[in-house]
Amino acid sequence: MSAQPKFTEKKYLTVFLFVTSLFFCWGLALTLGDVLNRHFQHVLHISRSRSGLVQLSLFGAYAVMGIPAGMFMKRFGYKKGILLGLGLYALGAFLFIPAAADASFNFFRFALFVLACGLATLETVAHPLIAVLGDQRTSDQRINFSQSFNGLGGVIGPAIGSYCILKAGQAHSNDLMAVRDLYIAIGIAISLLAIAFLFIKLPALQEEQPVTETPVPVKPLIKQKHFVFAAIAQFFNVAAQGGTWAYFINYGHDVMGMSDEQAGYFFSLSIAMLMLGRFAGTALMRFIAPYKLLAIFAGMNILMCIIVAAALGWISFVALILINFFFSIMFPTIFSLGLKNLGQYRQQASSFIVMGVVGGGLFPPLMGLIANHNVAAAYYLPIICYLVILLYGYSYKRLAAGF
User: To pair with 341 at 20 to 30 A between CA atoms, which of 38, 63, 102, 138?
Assistant: First the structure.
């Protein structure tokens, strides 16, 4: 029997840790968007369905930037791809200065779009890079581990946003100055991170080898059924994430009678459950096949959504928090499963899977149309998404075999 494959190798450790820190950075940015969603409803006097366009600006950038980022990475390499992503991230953050001065919702959406183009570039580069920093058989574990720090950024994002932006009674709780100042700080931090990365040298990397014992030609992407379904599943996965997160604070306010600040802190707790779920998922994958665990967690979230939509008080609110625990492994596991055995097509495939993130921009406005009248009932919609993910996990082995 072959020895248990290593998680990664010593020569890759510095790069692995740095790239893992990038997962933290985009987790912070994405969950701050959900705090902005609620704040803009108050300060700019917009409806819940219109505030959902914040998510469209964030996640829509993935559809626009996914393929260009993949082409850039293929031509210029992983390192320049990461520097491009960090540069766009910082630029978008600094665009909050004129957006706040104009008090323009559309200007904020443009700033978020530029920032999210940076996030899309980072995700397009980081996932295939993490996949090749060690044995392909442990790529699911590496991606889930790194995505755990995306969860950590997600915990800190709404906590910072709730304290700096939503906290009642502070000097700028009813204007946009706190938003501006927070994003200036983020822009400076990301700029410093980009400068630090200039001094990191990437080791020589080898393209992944198929895990099958008998070498076989790598088929074009369109004929790789496990990849095609992964791109579809990722669209529905991020759609469910975007909708669930966008109206979490509204649910805490409307159904539970909390202040926005209190609901924001509970949102941070729910992201902590996501981080916990990713660490737990990484451990469970040593014993349960990733595609089986994906199907189990999707089934659990169907149950959680039914309970949330029933508006049963604290029972439903706990279920809303637990959605993130079971959601935890879905993004990285779908990504990793979709990239397996693609050889030279792996970078191109990463671009297409990243484009699926646009689902997170299209779904919140749809949920918002229901949330305008009943925020609890809006949580019936993500059930559709989890059914698609359950089907992908259930059928993955057959898809990967080409049937």
Answer: 63
d(CA 257, CA 95): 35
Q: Are 273 and 324 in contact (CB under 8 A)?
A: yes
**CB-based contact 271:318 (threshold 8 Å):** no
Phi, psi torsion values for 286, nearest 5 degrees:
-75, -20
What is the pTM (predicted TM-score) of this model? Answer: 0.73
The two structure tokens encoding residue 14: 């510095």
Are 364 and 56 in contact by the 8 Å Cβ rule? The answer is yes
CA atoms within 13 A on the CB side of 35: 33
Q: Would you state the structure tokens that stand for residue 112, as one six-digit string?
A: 């978020």
Residue 393: phi and psi, rounded to 5, are -60, -40
The answer to whether residues 394 and 293 touch, using CB atoms and an 8 Å cutoff, is no
Q: CB-hemisphere CA count at 13 Å for 30?
A: 32
Domains, the chain, in order of start with CATH, read: 11-400 (1.20.1250.20)
Distance between CA atoms of 296 and 206, rounded to whole angstroms? Answer: 33
**Contact, 25 vs 193, CB < 8 A?**
yes
**Listed residue (212, 218, 215) closest to 344, CA to CA:** 218
Q: Cα–Cα–Cα angle for 189, 192, 196, nearest 5°?
A: 135
What interhelical angle do 13-43 and 225-246 show, nearest 10?
40
Contact predicate 228/350, CB 8 Å: no
Count, residues in the chain = 403
DSSP for residue 200: P
One digit per residue, pLDDT tens: the chain, 403 residues? 456 777 878 888 888 889 999 988 888 888 888 788 778 888 888 887 787 788 788 888 888 888 898 889 888 989 999 999 999 999 999 999 999 999 888 999 999 999 999 998 998 888 888 878 877 777 777 887 887 787 788 788 888 887 888 765 454 456 788 889 999 999 999 999 999 999 888 877 655 444 444 344 467 777 888 899 999 999 999 999 888 988 898 999 999 999 888 888 898 888 889 888 988 988 898 889 999 999 999 999 999 999 999 999 999 999 999 999 999 899 889 988 888 878 777 778 878 888 888 888 788 888 988 988 999 999 999 999 999 999 999 999 888 877 6
